[in-house]
Amino acid sequence: MPIQRVIEIPKRKKEDNNQSTKKNTAADAAAAEKGSNTSILTKEEEQLLASLTQEQRVKQSDEYKTKANKYFGEQKHDLAIDEYTKAIAFNPTAILYSNRSFSYFKKEFFVLALEDALKATQLDPMYVKGYYRLGQANMALGNYDDAKANFATVVKKFPTDAEGKQKLKMVTTLIKKKAFEEAIQCSNESPYLSLDIDSMAVESSYQGPHFEGEEITLEFIKEMIGYMKSQKLLHKKYVMKILKKSYELFTKLPTLVDIDKETSKKITICGDTHGQFYDLLHIFELNGFPSEDKPYLFNGDFVDRGSWSFEVIITLLSFKLLYPNHMHLTRGNHESIEMNRFYGFTGEVLHKYSEKVHDLFTDLFVWFPLAFVLDNDYLVVHGGLFGKDGVTLDDIRKLNRAQPDSTENELVQCLLWSDPQTNNGIAPSSRGVGVYFGPDVTRKFLKQNNLCGVIRSHEVKADGYQVDDEGSVITIFSAPNYCDQSGNLGAFINFTDSTVKFTTFSEVDHPNLPPMFYQKN
Ligand SMILES: [Mn+2]
């Protein structure tokens, strides 16, 4: 299998933080201005727009809309957003804003989704889908009370709408469940405590591998991978056993894990894998299985999107159990019940196993560490840095990551959700959670914490990786042809004593299931 490309750059030096950072230029300001302008019309299109009668504009808008809807159906959301934007420029309607809102939602730009949904309801207060989009965006942002109000509006305005009633009921149940979970967690009750694995039977008809004894073995993992690769399900007893042992392991880990020099200088770092099990196995083919000589760090977003999220996470957890000091997993923004409900993992686990197994995953995810530091040099987090100055590594260490409200903590949100920007300074994120942070913010943080760089994931990149600001920020993304349609390469990083080496690779074949296959609505 061809390796596309290997690129090696020197490790960054801490002294580089002293060099003057990029200054914002007039061109940057103009670019920022342009970026905030939603019009994407070409000059010709602008002229066309000016020359048309209202009737002609409506017709032209419909043409863009047809194209946009087609792209949406093909899950090409970037292209759909462009076409909806043009359609809106020619003739803004509630339907167009509502549809673009859904595209933004698919891209996880929740603030933009919310804004568009709001415009839809303003343009046409009787357009029911606008309220659905509003409710959906609010739910993803964790604004359950607002979402409840949105669905209540549907029920009030459209008393015969069955879906509205059902959604209102769902969000009301969620609010109750959340309050209940918070109460339970405060008393330190976990679904793991009542888990009795020994009493579970394995039917004689089960053909798969058996996890016997206390310690997981490489033989078991290899057999399990082969079994799952042929699309068979590991027995739920062993799933629960892996989860329980993982829970015992992860609850003992600190929020920020320091990785020693010996491990750091040969570690492999992978970014988002997002349920692309066959591509994960390809990484192991290219780079070798995890072992004490081949340490790995998988930097979050193991689940959602791809339809083999279960297989990805159970494989990674198994290696974590086998090599606890040489296999590291960071929490991503998708290791969260809120995201899992919308982006596939919940539906997948309910289909393959049960609500109980799903609850066990949810309870485990909150214990994944939020950050790693490689040999006092590089900070590794899924998202990025913070919306305020002066945050120290000790502040991260002190975060109480598994509290029910910890995802509402600003620092936790930034670690999981932030993205770098090319302009200096801090800007609100279109995602609605976390921030955009500029190179000056990064350098200040690095200098204050005596680090040389930040390695993060969270954004799809054409080459699978991106080096920004002379290496002060590195993005790594390991899901090639993300969602079967992005056309991007995947990449992983190999560290050596003095260099950071990127290997890029393209996607491999997988069984014929689309992304989010098990997701209901
Ligand atoms: Mn992410």
UniProtKB/TrEMBL annotation:
Q: Identify the stretches annotated as TPR repeats.
A: 61-94, 128-161
Q: Which GO terms describe its molecular function?
A: metal ion binding; protein serine/threonine phosphatase activity
Keyword annotations of the record: Hydrolase, Manganese, Metal-binding, Nucleus, Protein phosphatase, Repeat, TPR repeat
Task: Give the EC class as a word.
Answer: hydrolase
Active site residues of this protein: 334
Ranges for domain Serine/threonine specific protein phosphatases: 234-511
Name the cofactor(s) required for activity, per the record. Answer: Mg(2+); Mn(2+)
Annotated region (Disordered), positions in chain? 1-39
Family, similarity comment: Belongs to the PPP phosphatase family. PP-5 (PP-T) subfamily.
Q: Mind telling me what this protein is named?
A: Serine/threonine-protein phosphatase T
Phylogenetic classification of the source organism: Eukaryota, Amoebozoa, Evosea, Eumycetozoa, Dictyostelia
